Records
---
Amino acid sequence: MCLKGENISFGYKRNNLILNNVNISVDRGEVLGLIGDSGSGKSTLCKILAGYENNHKGNVIIDGKKVPSKGYNPVQLVFQHPEKAVNPKWKMKDILNEGHIVPQDILDSFGIKKSWLNRWPNELSGGELQRFALARSLSPETKFLIADEITTMVDAITQAQIWNIVLDIVKELNIGVLVVSHEKNLINKLCDNVVYLDAINSVN
Amino acid sequence: MRSKAKICTEENKKTEALLKVKDLSLSFIQYASGLRQTELKVISDLSIEAYSGKILAVVGSSGSGKSLLAHAILGILPSNAILNGRIEYDGKELTQEKKEEIRGKEIALVPQSTTYLDPLMRVSNQVIGCVEKENEGLMKKVQREIFQKYDLKPNVERMFPHELSGGMTRRVLVSTAVISSAKLVIADEPTPGLDEKTLNETLNYFKDMANKGCAVIIITHDIEAALKISDKIAVFYAGTVLEVANVEDFKNNGENLRHPYTRALWNALPQNKFQAIKGHQPMQDEVTDGCIFYERCSKKNVLCSKGIPQFKDVNGGVVRCNNVS
């Protein structure tokens, strides 16, 4: 089973393509790294693969079928800034269980404390919020996780904590991961394979 | 006035620190419920020193209050902030009036992101800032030279902030510090989200400033970037500095590092062991009596839970730990 982006082209303006005929594929259980310069369209590609951006050419395919536009999306995207991905007027327990009831064992492995669930998002640090963002995205129905610079804003210890947990869980649930990062050392440590998105937008 | 100040710094340059922060504490008054107020302590007993021609990196996790340190030095804290401790600049105490007088002239801030630029103002005017009419032509010339040096094309100066890319914004922000001919430059998180090439370029700008005799403080959570250019590294944790180490101490398994937290931070890097220690940085409202790292420390003993350890000089660095000799 694999997630494929086929001949994806996208631009915000008609004569200025950000992505031009990009092909990318992630297998289930694979951890794939994606590297590219600032502004090369990495984040845009992530959004397209996760179904956040529809106005593109080319297809996003899982197992030969198009991703359904209704229901739970098997491709989950986690962003760089968790504080922008939570509703500031909801308590953490509501944010966590918005998509599905997150099982206790996932909470335990992320080290999410009971007392945090009754807090507001602004009462937690970035690293703690990112754990919530990851916990809620790793449901049994998730088949692919797209991690767009998820640990860029946290310190090295929290980065190691978060990735060690994520790698354990994706192995257990057989989830494919696309890791976007500028940090070569991190990519080398985490990933089975690496692809480069360069200025002319060919993935190799 | 200015020439007098200049002579003073040159005499002091070699031995005295340009900026000394001693036992700085910062708290915010907040309304808890109704009219009841609480005091939230975000920085406690922090001491650092910055020397001319040297780069000091303050490394700590995001949201631990590092940026507030920069804001405290510049005197741009909100009105509900209470600042205690002593800040000395050039041998004299830096009071709020003094801060307002010299910030933007002798002390410059390189802010974190585009949001610090005025979206409705062309970038060249922002870089030049407020100058009197007769100096405007001169400043314009200086600004053009700086832009050229940083590889910003002439058409950039007429642009608005939203037209710049991430790397260009960074260069514009650095230009604002360079043009002020500041003696102390404070850079707040100058690196996140930049690719390797832009990152190295940005770091070189700060290296250049230090070579010209500025004291540079870089506030960052990216320890790798800090190691590339700094002379000393202050490790910031939960609102205080636990250790000031030399760059050379960061090697192998970190056996030269003095504090267990610094060692854990070093060993957590992906190119090292990628090893995480348990626990979280304590929240601001969780008050501890002893060492702030007590909960997560592998070497803790009874003494550590009673009272905050004092700074000790060890191997050319300082550390706040009972278990180091």
---
Amino acid sequence: MNTAKFLELVRDELELDSDLHVSTNLKELDEWDSMAAMVLIGLVSNEFDVNLTGDDINSITTVQSLIEKIGTERFE
Amino acid sequence: MSIKKNILITGATSGIGKALACLLVKDLNTCVYGIGRDEEKIQDLLGYENFIFLKFDLFKVEEIEELFKSSLGDIKFSGFVHCAGLEETLPIGLYTVDRVQQVFTVNVFSAIEIVRNLSKKKYSLDQASFILLSSVMGELGQPGKIGYCASKSALLGFARSLALELAKRKIRVNCVSPGIVDTPLTQKLFQQIEEENKSRIVGMHPIGIGEPNDVVYLIEYLLGDKSKWLTGQNIKIDGGYSIQ
């Protein structure tokens, strides 16, 4: 998936008021909470067929770290 | 006209949905968006400036997202009431997957798909109130009512989970479960059964069967701020039917 499209998708699904960049720390977003984590897990599962675990969610920080968790080869 | 509240109603052309729309349009600060199939049945409502009819068949669940995009793009709702419902009597031996699917599509899946769209910030205000019309049959059973009972039960589970998911935005979700109310749906049911059976059903309601407005006033309360601490509940309104 195109990285810009992924950012847009995450921004839409988390209904973020602010801009989202690969360097944005997801955990520092006002909108970040357990529901947001659930949305992210569902989104990644739907789009990439990758099932993030609770440990994965604990360890991610920035969008870049999420992309690495999914697999950088899946992005262009 | 200064609109302060937008309310979306499914099943707005008949029974409780129509009675609710008729009550809500009397407040000119409220704009009622009624989803239904047959505008012939609501000629009286169409004259109101604050009533907007959305002709839509809820069987087409996959087109609901487009309905939001094309017709409700700039509307933020403060209330949603799912009144649309399909009722049928069919024993288990005849309940094929297709028939079950039909009942669930209108009674449950359409509500889930509407709320999937509606729960986004662009379509709903914080502190909105969503109400799903279940039935006393959501908790009780009756022979021949597998599809109806199962689907109305499903709404109760849906409402509880949804109430928790939307609590952050103080959006409340509740179910209203009526007993037998004198609506076209009930009249259709009564036509299918014998007089004796009909009397027995009516007799099971200690203070008689209900009128649409009996239920509508409860929904009005749930839509308003006076019920702001009430969420995730199933409120039975049935003339005492379910306490026996």
